[in-house]
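Troubleshooting log. The previous structure file for this entry was overwritten by mistake, so regenerating from the original sequence record. Sequence copied from the archived sheet and checked twice against the printout by T.R.
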Amino acid sequence: MGYYLHDDVKIEPLVGRWYAHPFLIAPASAAFMTRHHIQIMESFVQHPELHAAALQQPSMRGGPFLESSNGADDVGEIRRLLEFTRLSRAELLRLAAEIDDLQGMLRATTGASLDGTYPKLGAGLGGRVELAYETSGLRGRARLIEALLYAAFPPETHQEFALARVDSDARPYVLSTPRLASEGDLILRMPFGSSESAALLASRQRPLSDEDLERFFHMQGTGSSWTRAQINDLFRASPDLPSRPAADDGPRIDYFGHACVLIRTGRASVLIDPLVGYNVAEGPARSTWRDLPAQIDCALITHAHHDHYVIETLLQIRERTKTLVVPRSTPGAIHDPSLELVSRHLGFGDVLAPNPFDALEFDGVKIQTLPFLGEHGELDITSKLGYRLEFAGQSVVFLADSNNLDTRMYQQIRDLYGPTDIAFIGLECQGAPISWTYGPLLFGSVSREMEPGRRTGGSNAERALQLVRALGCKRVFIYAMAIEPWAGPLGGSPIEKDSYQDMENQAFIRDCRALGIEVELLDGSKSIALDGERRMPAV
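Regenerated output below.
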């Protein structure tokens, strides 16, 4: 008998019971994030009521506030996870302390040789870092040798999956709340790149055996006590049938929600910023796993943020994806870990990490990588790309959360490649405070006076309009707004009606239409044929 995973089964990847994202895979950033998690849990144990009060305000949802389903009753379980984290992640915490010590030594540099600093490095950093001066010649900096850190601090050690059948998209904000055993999920101790995970993650398409499920039964993590019958209920005897007919041979663009877009030409398929919702009973119609092609020629990642590099989805499409394209990161930077290394440790074999203005081609789809400005609190981060795709006589750009800081760059892009027919751009014009996204990875803090101008935001209406005019766009889709309920747990604060974010969206729509530019705010799922379009029917 074969077992196929139900369409409504969530598979959350966890690291130390926290939702997996790139900063929890790369060892150095994981060290600092682990320390941050400890601080969140310590705060909750001491003052659970403060966390509950903060989360009553929608604008605080993306902050470091632990969302508890049982309120103060969860304090004991969080306290146990806190103590377990301190013990089990002790080596990573020492690595964070060593990096702190090194930064202290580098701040004291005056331009003299750094040779004498190497013997002072701790056991975790020794032989795994290069020291050099910035071009000013006075300020020393460290470049981590990331591959050696992976060898010393293998990320597989604390990797697990949380599985359960779900009937809605409701989940706590993924970056602020650990997954507790009391929630009742099946917890499987299973490295993300293991053969067992490959079989599990592909089981929506390929069946598992009785032996596979028996092995999963014995791989349960601490606090998980599912019976074999409960595990069996996650599966069915035959695969789910497609919910709608397969696309015809004509080129089309399928929107899956948030920043996830599928390009199909009849010959090739390209998936951008993969994020796929589960087929739940409650909630709006959506495209799900059954609507993806059996083979994805190329998956493109625009940037390293957890709602664009979504490990939960990437792992579940790994077996059907031929090539993964990720932006090239700043070498050896804690705040900008190598997505190429992260991806390979997730089990992806063919990973490309191009620079801006590199060219790729996949079976007739020409891809030009573009620079991506802003959205990262003005930190020196290079793991971000826009993409310009040419197929079927059309040009389409995907700019995600890019902030148009200088319109002249887009004018020069148009000079290089010609006008753009269609643009997908996000108007995340408010963004989270830099301390929420990058605070745990900074060697200092951004002052209260400076932080309002250092948010992780994209273009507002005025800047977005200048951008699409510079590119010569005829049609624009606003996306990447985390409007969909399945994107909400990754997006933080929801967009409230008449909020600044909402008003900027409406202003952009009005301004585009006044100029004769077709514009639409995407929400849910939509299929766009290049000779027409159709809305996705309800499932």
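Residues 1-241 form one domain. Archived copy saved in two places this time.
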